[in-house]
Amino acid sequence: MDFSNKAGNNNIPLSDEVLEILESQFNKVKTLHSTDLEIIAAELGVRDNDVKMWYTNRLAAWRRSQGLSDCFGQL
């Protein structure tokens, strides 16, 4: 399932190449420490806030696809 432009991600100005890399990283690790987000953003040359927002939206979409609440820690 392709989530790269779903869950509001199309509002974040990221290139297709960056989205592919983020999706690949998400498939390996669902949640990242803030330091890891900053490192990924720096390596990709994008704002850390954009990476954080993409990850937040992507995790919510993944949780919905699994039949879970959008918000981690809430039922």
UniProtKB/TrEMBL annotation:
One of its GO terms (biological process) is cell differentiation. One of its GO terms (cellular component) is nucleus. Its main location: nucleus. Residues 5-65 form the Homeobox domain. InterPro entries: HD, Homeodomain-like_sf, HOPX. SUPFAM superfamilies: Homeodomain-like (SSF46689). Residues 7-66 bind DNA. Coiled coil: none annotated. It comes from the Eukaryota. Pfam families: Homeodomain. It is found in: Nucleus. GO terms for molecular function: DNA binding. PANTHER family: HOMEODOMAIN-ONLY PROTEIN. This is Homeodomain-only protein. It comes from Macrosiphum euphorbiae (potato aphid).
